[in-house]
Structures are given as C-alpha cells and as structure tokens.
Amino acid sequence: MKMTHLFATAAMALATATGANAANLISADVTGPSGTIWTTRDTGNYTLFLQTPGLGDFLNPNDEAINYTPAEGINRVLLAGEGFRPGETINSDAIYTLTLNFDDGATITGDYTPLTNSFVGGSSTTVGNTTYSLIEFSFTRTLGDSVSPNVAVPGGNGNDYAGNFRFDVTTAAVPEPASWALMIGGFGVAGASLRRRRAATTVKFA
Q1: pLDDT digits (tens, 9 = 90+) for 26-82
Q2: Residue 123 · residue 108 · CB < 8 Å
Q3: What is d(CA 53, CA 62) in angstroms, rounded to the nearest whole number?
C-alpha cells in the first residue's frame, strides 16, 4: 500500500465528521441593580416571557419551565415582562443584565442600557464542542399592556417591558467512532510500512 494512499485514508476519516446537537435553553433571567427580576424560573418573581419569531406563541405563557432547542447559527427570541415599578412609565433600572442557561452547563450573559439603547457586549462560552455567544440583547419599558405578572395575557400594569436577544450556536465537527478507528488504523499501517521500508534498505558490511 502506498504511503500517499495511507494518509489519504486517514484524512478521509477526519473528514467524515459529525457535530453534536446544541444543548437546550432551560432558563433566562433579566435582572437590574435595584433588585428587579424577570425570570423563566418559578421563583415568585415576575415572569420573563419568551417567544420565537414566526411561531406566534410564547414558550412559557403560564409561567412553565422552558426547554427550547436552538438551531445551529443565529437564534432570535422576543421578550416581554410585566411593567415595574407600578404606576410609572420609566425603566426601573439604568442597566439590565440577561443571563441564559443551557442544560449542558453553559451560561452566557450580556448587558443593555435603555437610556442609550446600547447592548454592552455579551459573553461567549464553550462546552464540549459547542460554543454559545450572546450577540444582542434589549429590554425596555413600553407604553403598552401585553402581559400580566405571571401569565401571558394583558393585565396588571399598563406599561410593560419588551425586547429581544440573539445568540449564536456553533458546533465543531467531531469524528464518529468508526472514523477514529479508521484513522488510527491508517496511521498504524503507515508506521509499520515505514519500519519495513527502513529494514529493507539497510546494508550490512562485512
């Protein structure tokens, strides 16, 4: 077997790769320095309602837990939350922090400043072969009533919060077990062939 064929076989093994699915988004929180909390977790605080564009339905309309499966690439999610403080029309805080948690242990965060409508960076983390990056977040008070404190129907305060976030999911390709075996076997054969070739070209002098 020629050496070029052996290394081509090993390269083919690496090329036969597959990427694991991204983990599910299991919770999202928006918090402010004053102690305000909107969350998808059942903690007694206001609910942070999530909605994926195009579906037309909230993921957690009755304060239930979320288990959202993101797609590879860019994912966009809309946000809504009950207005706070009651009776006011201004934002409760000068800055809001979004925290997203995934069921593989990944956590990403980012900040938003309503006064300047600014997304103040977002974090990125890698778990296994999947990288999660927060690339956009907004959350500000509006002049409309869209949700109640814990149910996604109008009610309560008439000046609710709305916004969105976008995050990127990138899954690196990893060889399948069969591909690993083929690759290792190819390198093993290549090594054995090199040893035989060296032995055959050795000349002994009397």
Answers
A1: 999 999 999 999 999 999 999 999 999 876 789 999 999 999 999 999 999 999 999
A2: yes
A3: 19
- Go through 120-159 and write b for each residue having 16 or more CB atoms within 10 A of its CB, e for each that does not: eebeeeeeeebbbbbbbbbbbbeeebbbbbbbbeeebbeb
User: Residue 122 is which amino acid?
Assistant: G
> How far apart (Å, rounded) are the C-alpha atoms in residues 157 and 100?
26
C-alpha distances (whole Å) from 16 to each of 12, 151, 172 are: 6, 47, 13
The amino acid that residue 176 corresponds to is: E
Pairwise CA distance, residues 55 & 15, whole Å: 36
Nearest-angstrom CA–CA distance, 3 and 193: 8
- Which amino acid makes up residue 92? S
Both tokens of residue 29? 């929180």
Tell me the pairing of strands 46-47 and 37-39: parallel
Angle at which helices 177-200 and 3-15 pack, to 10 degrees? Answer: 170
**Calpha distance 80→140 (Å, rounded):** 9
The per-residue DSSP string of 170-183 comes to: EE--EE-HHHHHHH
Nearest to 174 by CA among 22, 24, 16: 16
In terms of pTM, does the model score above 0.90? no
Output the CA angle 34-144-110, nearest 5 degrees.
40
